[in-house]
Specification:
Layout: H1 6-38, E1 42-43, E2 46-47, H2 48-64, E3 102-107, E4 110-114, H3 116-120, E5 125-132, E6 138-147, H4 148-154, H5 158-161, E7 165-169, E8 176-180, H6 181-184, E9 190-195, E10 198-199, E11 209-211, E12 226-230, H7 237-240
Parallel strand pairs: 3-12
Antiparallel strand pairs: 1-2, 3-4, 5-6, 6-9, 7-8, 7-12, 9-10, 9-11
This protein binds the ligand Nc1nc2c(c(=O)[nH]1)N[C@H]1C(S)=C(S)[C@@H](COP(=O)(O)O)O[C@H]1N2 and molybdenum atom (MO).
Length: 249
């Protein structure tokens, strides 16, 4: 500073004061902004501004989502033997697998009933992929079943496939998910009845579950009771708790 003349010293002092004032103003703005955000009314369990951000993300995702996108696959030898069980909503003890049939609601009032044997008789597809839960864990696991797109083709469900969404629901209606049709007809999406080459264990969703590797675990509904099709977003258990509707990876 000693090399500076008086004018230069003044300039430095003025700039120091200005930058301090700007810095202080920023802190005040952040504190006020945070306080406002924190005290905002909530919308589906999330502050309104954050919910808006999430909605913009969903819109962007809807536009840019690549329908041919595939999850990375692994050799069968990479699959874990002890598969974690997570989530038991809609998996109550009073379920009778012996009388179970899959209900496919072609349109309201027009339901197709499909027994497990008919599903097993369709071409089988197996997949080994890294199953990811939004809680932060993941596991390489091995599943088998019929591709949902093969199932639609076999039962002539072309009109249904032209809807924007499919909804899936457990027999007791306690757990339910909504999924965009591009993800449903993705070739890796399975109506799954096998894990590690054996019948699906009860707590993994026997007799039938969804395996949809392009989505987080929440969307892999266990114990499917019914499937329906519509252009409006179907109800979704975790989206109602504030999670992202698409749950895409
Ligand atoms: N019916 C039903 N399906 C469900 C859930 C649930 O609570 N009920 N939890 C979901 C969640 S959060 C995850 S991570 C996966 C876990 O599948 P797993 O138990 O086979 O590991 O199932 C999904 N499907
Ligand atoms: Mo999960």
């Amino acid at each position: 500073m000693s090399d500076l003349n008086n004018d230069q010293k003044k300039t430095v002092r003025r700039r120091t004061i200005i930058s301090f004032a700007v810095f202080a103003a920023c802190i005040v703005a952040v504190v006020i902004g945070w306080w406002k955000l924190y005290n905002q009314p909530q919308d589906s369990g999330v502050q309104r501004t954050l919910r808006k951000g999430l909605e913009v993300n969903e819109k962007v995702f809807e536009k840019v989502y690549d329908t041919t996108h595939l999850a990375k696959t692994y050799p069968k030898s990479a699959a874990v033997k002890e598969v974690r069980v997570n989530g038991d909503v809609g998996m109550g003890k009073d379920f009778n697998a012996k009388v179970w049939v899959l209900r496919v609601v072609r349109k309201p009032g027009d339901t197709l009933y499909v027994p497990l044997d008919s599903i097993r008789a369709l071409p089988k597809t197996e997949i080994v992929f890294d199953f990811k839960c939004i809680e932060g864990w993941s596991q390489v696991t091995h599943w088998g079943g019929v591709r949902f797109s093969d199932f639609l083709a076999h039962y002539g469900l072309r009109d249904q496939a032209s809807k924007k969404y499919a909804g899936l629901i457990t027999p007791d209606k306690a757990y339910y998910v909504g999924i965009d049709m591009p993800s449903m007809i993705n070739p890796q999406t399975l109506l799954c009845y096998e894990m590690n080459g054996k019948a699906l264990p009860d707590d993994q969703g026997y007799p039938l579950r969804l395996i949809i590797p392009v989505k987080y675990g929440v969307k892999h509904l266990k114990r499917i009771g019914a499937i329906y099709f519509q252009d409006e977003k179907p109800a979704d258990y975790w989206a109602e708790q504030g999670y992202d509707y698409y749950g895409g990876l």
